[in-house]
Design goal:
2 domains, 3-stranded mixed sheet, 10 helices, 7% strand, single chain
Length: 254
């Protein structure tokens, strides 16, 4: 089989009919829950089409793409270890402010939720999913939101920068978690089932995506910013965002 050279993966995709566009045209219509869900299902079909032309790539790239296989799970494990250490320290020394009071009050439950997510993933064929992904040379667009991916006469993409080797399940997760964070009410189980059927994926892939969508990212993310003093927020702002994070994280699919 001949192997071809390309400047970038964007150039390769252009040979498959994928078009680079500057922006996605947006509709100002107010979407009912039913219409929104149908648009989500339609987007899942477009994501699958991207995978069909991306995965199995065996050419040479002058501008290489990153390999993010396993990255999110390993990052989550590190996050949970840090949260456990912080929680133990607060328990030993007592909270120094109202932010730590909230962490002390909610931390054990959030930690247990995160650990349940990781245990569920590891106990349901995670390494086999990783092996399959590597064997099939699976590639994700990563940014598969409505603002970056669409389809007119052909597949259209605004930004190719986040393309990476990764399990195809991750594109489904990246898409649905954005909807979840924005508070959109869709049937996540239906969306996951539709994606896995299109991709020819089995039960463990469904469990994997559902588990990731159940991870308490928002609370942990805000607390990490507080620990690192990354934002110029006062105590009240951190508290507001932590409580909002708890609300955003409350949906669990496992």
């Amino acid at each position: 089989m001949n192997r071809f050279f390309y400047d970038s993966f964007q150039q390769y995709l252009s040979t498959k009919g994928v078009k680079k566009v500057n922006f996605m045209l947006k509709s100002n219509e107010t979407l009912s829950r039913r219409i929104l869900e149908e648009k989500v299902i339609e987007q899942i079909h477009i994501i699958n089409e991207v995978h069909k032309v991306s995965c199995g790539f065996n050419g040479y790239l002058r501008k290489r793409i990153n390999n993010h296989t396993c990255k999110l799970i390993e990052d989550d494990k590190i996050q949970l270890k840090k949260l456990r250490r912080s929680l133990e320290k607060i328990k030993d020394n007592g909270p120094i402010d109202r932010v730590e009071e909230i962490v002390l009050e909610r931390g054990d439950k959030i930690l247990a939720r995160g650990e349940k997510v990781i245990d569920t993933i590891m106990d349901n064929g995670y390494m086999e999913l990783v092996e399959r992904s590597m064997d099939n040379v699976e590639i994700c667009l990563t940014n598969v939101d409505f603002d970056n991916l669409g389809k007119g006469e052909t597949i259209e993409i605004v930004n190719f920068d986040d393309i990476a080797y990764n399990m195809v399940e991750m594109d489904c997760y990246y898409f649905l978690v954005k909807l979840k964070r924005k508070g959109f009410k869709v049937n996540f189980n239906r969306c996951i089932d539709e994606f896995c059927e299109l991709e020819g994926l089995g039960k463990n892939s469904k469990i994997f995506i559902r588990a990731l969508l159940s991870y308490p990212y928002e609370f942990i993310k805000i607390y990490e910013k507080y620990k690192k003093n990354k934002k110029n927020w006062n105590e009240e702002e951190y508290i507001r965002r932590l409580l909002n994070g708890i609300k955003e994280d409350e949906i669990s699919l496992i």
